[in-house]
Amino acid sequence: VVMEPSDFDKWFTEQRHQTRPHQKDGTKTVAEERDPHATMIEMGRKLAETAGCFKCHSTDGSPHIGPTWLDMYMRKETLQNGQIQLADEAYITESMMDPKAKQVKGYQLVMPSFHGRLEGPESAAIVEYIKSLRSDSPEPARDTGPQFDIKTGQTVEPGTGSVEVRTGGMQ
Questions:
Q1: Which of 64, 49, 72, 66 is nearest to 109 (CA)?
Q2: Mean pLDDT for the chain overall
Q3: pTM over 0.70
Q4: 146, 71 in Cβ contact below 8 A?
């Protein structure tokens, strides 16, 4: 179909107004306005909740079965073997995938492995959530230990805890 130039210009103007009446060039969409980092943090919080992480880890610094997540990122943890471990992204991810690899001193090894249960982006979102849990303290303090007293010689073998502990709340 061939049109006269003036007819084409008229048609083109009408088409542009009909198909894009509300869009302004250069205007960001709602999704583009959101901070992707904040979205990942929120996703990490939700994933941690559904995976059962809060059954053992606190987010406010209070003692619990596992180390608190408040100020965990970049905190220096003392391991069972006496080594000092910096809780960076790699260590936190490794602890989710293989909790037996580096056990924090003073805590029983009851955390289940999330290897094969969390995809890479999901574990990354949980790490971002943990990183966001910061107090006003300039230097992250070492964890004060579990909420229960460990009796001399008492151990809890992995896989012998309650179903919720063994599965992280996921049956």
A1: 66
A2: 79
A3: no
A4: no
